[in-house]
Amino acid sequence: MSSKQGTNQSKNTKLTDYFPSKNSINSKQDQLEDKPMKKSKNQVAMKSVKSTNSKSDSDTEIVDEIQSSNSSSGDKKIKSPSKQDQIENKKVDNSIQKVGDALNQQNKIQQEEEEEQKQTSEQNQQLAEKKQLRSHSQKLKNLQFYLNNLQSNPNGDYILNILEKWKGKFKILETHHGYVQWLFPNFFQSRFNNGSDPLREEEAEEFIKNPIIANRLKKAYDLIYEFFGMKIVNNITGEVQRADNYKSRYYETYITSYHNHMRIRRILCHFNNVGFRRYAISLVKFLEKEIYGEKGYQKFVEDKRPLVQKWQELPQELPLRQLSRLKVFEEWQIYGEIDENNQIQVETLQDNCFANIQDIKRESIYLIKLKEAKHQHL
Q1: 70 compared with 256, residue with greater pLDDT
Q2: Rg (Cα) of the chain, in Å, rounded?
């Protein structure tokens, strides 16, 4: 009996395991309900749509609320600032004004500094230019001499003193060998006065255009013509006549002192370099007549007889007939009137003046003003 009962109990136990009690079934359902259940794809999608619709509705409500708030605030009147706000605003305005004034002042100072630097730079440039010009002008000795800023060399004097105090002092003018190169500069260096300088192009330009220098040149011509016993009777053409003391002066200058022949050549060349070519032409014509008479130089040269015979046949009244033996006029006539269609004559003049024919033909301001004054009186 007992064995039966044991067997039945074991069977019952096993059956119980296979057929749980109602309470145990309920307990398992509770456990299953506590665990998250796996949802289907359709369920997830439906929940997402609901969530999105819910969020969209929420955003719409917020926008409507903001618009409603703005609308209600716009309907309200703007309140005027309080006294304290006005004070604060005024302080801000004052601060802004101060900052603006400070910036303007700073800009003004900066502009003044830039302007000062610019002026300083311009002044330095002007000083440099003046220094360069002064250095250059010191090399223009002939110009400085005629501006009365420099004495002739050697043992010379200022131009104004020479024109005033040396006039009529024939002994000084004859024996002094350092003034002629300064009174009558040319484009070539003197072989007899290393203290003088050849004429420079810018100096020649100034001699032609500067009326002060041109007037002083004319006075220098009057001085040297008097020394040679001649005088200018027409300031425009440079026409020359004998001076009252021509016999003694001719003898002292042309006949017995041959170095004056070279002085005449220098003077003729000088005329052609400084705008007084008219004077060169007139002086050559005058000297030709004083030497050869009406016969003239060309006919004298074409005569093939011996030189001694030819000059002896020249009229005795010609004061300078003796010069026909020396052929000095052959050198002088180069600087006189030429045929500009004759290329040889043009080139000879240019070569001996160290200038081109266009520059040689330019006229001094002195002559230009004389001609203008003459036309005004007509």
Answers
A1: 256
A2: 60
